[in-house]
Write a structure and sequence with these properties.
Length: about 400
């Protein structure tokens, strides 16, 4: 039976949906479906307290320090006491927010919608996605243990030998490695690799849940659980711009792309700056954005697709901005911009990353606006995302950043 507009409006105003979303977002298992958490590479804690001046500033992230080692003693000698200290490091407190809304008529659907069932899960998915992105960004930040084999002339991709060489950088703590995080491009490279008997080196996860790999762990490579995340930050930017057409204005591209895009731009409306329009594609010209207005010469324009439903970039965003020099646009103007980025893969030891957040603040605020018959949902993640300098319980870093083609 189709859901009526009235029944949906009543549902979103009811205490039931407020409680359902609140419980989903503030529960201790809210991030357990993240493969980074499921493998043990990241630990989450919902006990973060908030001070009035904390946002944007460094706060202390505690963890158990090194216990020390056993020492030889003669018969009758006292053991030397060494105090166990809680070590501390600092990280920046951040706030990320999610705001969404629904109207009475906008939710009337022939298919029937049970918002109490659907909305909590969708908001949890977005919270998990945010957590993954932020801890991966923390993982590759300056100061991480790195191995850079990128070569623009003779490309070096992630392969078996590179993985073994990388693991040896952890010395005798290799057994603490619990995850290998890679981009979808590197995952594709891995799937093609075979041993001398033509057997795949990648072993798929046979533990399926609803037909999908459990907790997002799609298999193992080199005996290590493999996590595929395109939110892994890349290093570098875009390559040399190749223009085409009648006297195209000079194009400059800045920023680090979310993926190794095969970027194309084409002018759809010619004329002067402010009149001309263009579109962009991130897959070599297969799919295009909506028209984007040019502005004044030299002004930065973010490459964002305004289409509500889009497969251009990452939900329409790219991480890139462009600027056009002075000139007149023609409809035959086009630009090709290849990627010039390093792929990154991460070897992660247990509890190498931390996501410390305020569970109470994550619980949603629900408002009803009678003036336009709209219900609004707000959720705020106050958190610190942190990479420990030394993996808890170990003597070496917990993250190794591999940079390769």
């Amino acid at each position: 039976m189709a859901a009526s507009a009235n029944s949906i409006a009543d549902a979103v105003k009811s205490p039931a949906i407020k409680d359902a979303v609140r419980i989903a977002l503030s529960g201790k298992n809210v991030f357990m479906n993240s493969p980074l958490v499921a493998t043990g590479a990241a630990v989450t804690m919902g006990s973060l307290g908030l001070g009035s001046n904390d946002l944007g500033n460094s706060i202390t992230v505690p963890y158990l320090g090194v216990l020390g080692e056993y020492e030889s003693r003669n018969d009758g000698d006292d053991a030397v006491y060494k105090k166990v200290k809680t070590a501390s490091e600092t990280a920046i407190l951040q706030r990320y927010s999610l705001a969404t809304s629904t109207t009475r008529l906008g939710n009337a659907s022939d298919g029937g919608i049970n918002l109490i069932d659907e909305l909590p899960g969708k908001m949890v998915e977005q919270a998990q996605r945010c957590m993954d992105q932020r801890v991966l960004t923390a993982a590759v930040a300056a100061g991480a243990l790195r191995r850079d084999v990128y070569n623009s002339g003779t490309p070096r991709y992630l392969d078996w030998e590179l993985l073994i060489d990388a693991k040896t950088m952890f010395g005798d703590e290799q057994q603490d490695v619990v995850a290998l995080a890679v981009s979808s491009k590197s995952y594709g490279d891995i799937q093609k690799q075979k041993d001398s008997q033509n057997r795949p080196l990648f072993i798929p996860n046979q533990n399926l849940q609803n037909g999908l790999p459990g907790n997002g762990i799609i298999g193992t490579y080199g005996g290590i659980p493999l996590v595929v995340r395109d939110s892994l930050p890349l290093s570098g930017s875009m390559g040399t711009v190749v223009p085409a057409g009648t006297t195209p204005p000079v194009l400059t591209v800045t920023g680090t792309p979310f993926k190794a895009y095969d970027l194309r731009l084409r002018v759809t409306v010619g004329g002067a700056h402010g009149t001309a329009k263009f579109q962009f594609s991130t897959d070599g010209g297969v799919n295009w954005s909506a028209d984007i207005n040019t502005t004044t010469a030299g002004a930065s324009i973010s490459l964002i697709d305004s289409n509500v439903i889009t497969i251009v970039g990452r939900n329409g965003t790219t991480g890139l901005t462009v600027a056009f020099a002075a000139g007149t646009f023609n409809v035959d103007n086009a630009y090709t911009v290849p990627p010039a980025v390093k792929q990154r893969s991460l070897l992660l030891k247990r509890n190498a990353l931390a996501f410390w957040y305020n569970a109470a603040a994550a619980a949603p605020i629900v408002e009803f606006n009678a003036a336009n018959d709209e219900t609004r949902f707000f959720s705020h993640l106050y958190f610190v995302a942190h990479r420990y300098t030394i993996a808890p319980g170990g003597s070496l870093p917990g993250v190794l950043v591999l940079e390769h083609n």
